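pinned: reference chain
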Amino acid sequence: MSLAHNKSIVLQAYKAFDLGDIEQGKRLVSPDIIGCVMGSHKLKGVDAFFEYALMMRVAFTDGYHTFEDVIAEENQVVTRGIFCGTHQGEFMGIPPTGKQVKFSVVHIDHVINSKIVEHWGQGDTMALIQQLGVVISPKHF
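pinned: its structure tokens
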């Protein structure tokens, strides 16, 4: 597939996530997708991948991505941008705060036969936690 086509697949997947359209999202990823998100979560298969996606949608129901760069090479698409949203649901054990968050994200998605087969996503977790007002003790470092 062309680089432009691979970019389109990835951008459609993020748009589906931002709109909460999980069924459209599932059409764009492989049933065997492998994901690594927020640095450590190993997700294997479409069910685990979308369980994480739904957790994020519940926590940030109005969340959306704005991408500043979309770069493709061979079968990989890199997106760099910002995620914004309001903390309206539990997120990793943190009860809803109602606070607006805005943090940088970088994703690498591997596309084969018009499906995302691998997703690596990293967000600025420290910025997110600070914006939520969570206090981290030094023993966590």
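why pinned: The chain is about 35% helix and 40% strand. The chain has a mean pLDDT of 92.
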